[in-house]
Amino acid sequence: MAEDCIFCKIIKGDIPSTKVYEDDKMIAINDVAPAAPVHVLLMPKDHTANITTADPELVAYMLGKVKMIAEKTGIAEKGFRVVINTGDEGGQTVKHLHIHVIGGKALGWPPC
Ligand code: 5GP
Ligand code: ZN
């Protein structure tokens, strides 16, 4: 748990969230400001800043859950986007590693 980390507070239960999935290593929650009809955030329970600080096996574990999340939220068939914003120039606003799974409509590209 990192002080002043909003996602650590969500994981601890101090801030409410809508959980899509949970296990011993991670949770998946609905984004509070969804960019599309489906916008889920996957995050590890143990605080780590981003993909450069995380154990690669943990990142692989979480990516391995994306298919299940996409199927559970009904976006697997039509397609969706997986995003890991990293650091300031990568647009990461919450410095607790998270994977965005976004879908439910046709998405534009590039995002910048
Ligand atoms: P980032 O820009 O760091 O890649 O993404 C952070 C995401 O966290 C944003 O999409 C933002 O809407 C979401 N977010 C920020 N605060 C909260 C919160 O308190 N609850 C939930 N569910 N999502 C949040
Ligand atoms: Zn945290």
TrEMBL record:
User: Which residues participate directly in catalysis?
Assistant: H98 (tele-amp-histidine intermediate)
Q: Where is this motif: Histidine triad motif?
A: 96-100
Provide the HIT domain boundaries: 6-112
InterPro entries, per this entry?
A: Histidine_triad_CS, Histidine_triad_HIT, HIT-like, HIT-like_sf
Q: Which CDD domains match?
A: PKCI_related
**GO MF annotation: an example:** catalytic activity
* Alphabetical list of Pfam families matching this protein: HIT (PF01230)
- Which SUPFAM superfamilies did the record assign? HIT-like
Q: Which PANTHER family does its entry note?
A: HISTIDINE TRIAD HIT PROTEIN
This chain belongs to the protein called Histidine triad domain protein
Could you tell me which species this protein originates from? Answer: Phascolarctobacterium succinatutens YIT 12067
Q: What is the lineage of its organism?
A: Bacteria, Bacillati, Bacillota, Negativicutes, Acidaminococcales
